[in-house]
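Quick log. Single chain, no ligands specified.
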Amino acid sequence: MTRINTNIPSIIAQGRMRNNLNDLNTRLERLSTGLRINRGADDPAGLIASETLRSEMSSLRQAIANSDRAVNMLSTAEGSLNEVSSLLLEIKGLVVDMANAGALGPEEVAADQLEIDSILSSIDRIANTTQFAGKKLLNGTLDYAMSNVNTSHVASVQVYGARIPEGASKNITVQMTASAETALRTFDNASKVTSAATVEIAGMRGTEILSFTSGTTFSEIVTAVNDNTGVTGVSASLSGTALRMDSVDFGSDAFVSVKSISGNFVWGTSAVTTGITSTDTGVDAGVLVNGQVASTNGLRVDIRTAALDSRFYLDSSFAQSSTSTAFQVTGGGSLFQISPEVSPLGQINVGLASVSTANLGNTITGYLNSIKSGGTNAVNQNNFIAAEDIVNESINQVAVFRGRLGSLQKNQIQTNINSQQVALENVTASESIIRDADMAVEVSALTRAQILVQATQQTLGLANQQPQIALQLLG
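-> predicted structure:
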């Protein structure tokens, strides 16, 4: 063809040149950025999938960072609790030392009490100064707030974790299904001992041997048993003409044992003769908390679910009823977001109770600050048993607190970090396959594009020379 106005081969070569240059530029861009998709036009569907995965990656990274920060905060609290625990153990040793009153002089007693007072001040200082990022951790500001707690039903309550609806409160209903009982032995065949008898009275606190002469009345036996209640954990009373022996404590751990060492001790229609033991154990309360069966030990109730983690003590009268009570958790606690999605399932709610001396202990045993000088259970006033009970309860509370924080870190947060890290690795790999450039492929494509551009340049030059054939016709 010898047309000169329209050079079709040149137009074709120009189009190929444009495409080859675009391909070359694309390869250069991918090699310089490392990305296969730099704009939506590169792969619209791939861009959508990649952005979705990038959103997940961002959430996963933040979830891991949140979990790490939660661990740091809880570790700070646990470190202070460890020190409080050590101080409580020192107090325990001092109480036991002061109980050896017969071998101590007044100066030593005063020195021990002074040391106890100093340790109590240190515990309060730790409770009020432990902080993380300017937030107080152990002074009660991160504890749960509650309302409508009827102390004639629930003597004390501690909420460790609660899933509270946003902008609302969480109702907690406690329903008695079975009464808590003390251990009980009743002696009702006579109003006095008809023959000399020596009996062993035993309870969960210890054992005592009592001897009664013939004619000892039940009221005199009551006095003798009650004089040793602190030793045995067994109290006695009269119910009409019957003699009752009850355990001081409620629950299956409590028991009353009456063993005749010599002589006869009558019980009901059977004689407790020499070598015979009459025993009874208590019964734990049966409790439903928000419709779920709670774990009980005497008057203590523990409920641990995803929605509620709490321990409380029932009033003894309420524990022997078949009624119910309710109270509300209105707020408070510390919320940790440890999953990529903001939802209750991805959050952990933790209450950090105050560990000040006014809060360690409970209404049943008493509070730790009562053992200081001038307190109702001051150790230098010979309140050794009461003080030890309070210290033991405080040690147990701190140990449980530390254990729960440790379990939270190990079994929930750390495992969450591990699982989210695996998820992040897999999501990142998937996003990389979609969006990242394969450098080997791109280098090969670059070489191909360079060759094609050079070849197209040569072809375009030949196409532009074709119209010159018309000049030969004119010659």
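The chain is about 45% helix and 25% strand.
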